[in-house]
Every structure is written in structure tokens, then in C-alpha cells.
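Quick start: what a row looks like.
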Amino acid sequence: MQAVALAVENPPGPKYPACLMFEGIDLYSDTMTRPTRAMRDAMAGAQVGDEQKGEDPTTLALEARVASLLGLESALFFPSATMANEVALMLHCSHGDELIAAENCHLFFA
């Protein structure tokens, strides 16, 4: 039990989890790649709307598709897992509640 506690308090390795340290397709940020001509054309021709106001047809279609796949009434799109985790914490915790997590937990660096 002591070894587990030490591992949580002082995790070995880099600041970021091992899952982010691998060779392959880098999806870390949209600034890491440059869009192709076809991608630019698709973006220019895409229907747009404000997703914060429930007006973006692409986001609404994605949410409906995911809800259907999961057999749920509805779904919400979050641009990152960190944002989804933050919202989940706000829904399940009250003001002044505390969270116990590893010191390199991504919620602290968001």
C-alpha cells in the first residue's frame, strides 16, 4: 500500500502521461498540422453556426449521432476531454469540495 501511495504522490517520468509520449499521428493540437487544399475547401463550404447557442448544424448532428449510437436521449459535445472532466466535476461537486488526484493530473494544468 505504501508503494502505491508513493507512486501517486511522486509519479515517475515526464510531466505528461505516457499515453501522450508515443510515435504516431499527433492530435495534440490543431496547430501541429497544416490543412490541405481539400480541407480548406471543405471548411469554406461548411454550414456554420454558434454551437454555444445550439445553432451549429455540424455539432448538433454529431451530438444526435452519438446519442443514437449510445441509445441515449441526447448527448453533449465537448472540444476536449479536459473540458468534459471539468464540467463533470462542477456538476458533481459543491463549492468548497476538494478533489484528490495525482500532482500531474491534467485537470490542474487546464
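That is the whole record. Residues 1-8 have pLDDT under 50 and may be disordered. The chain has four helices and no strands.
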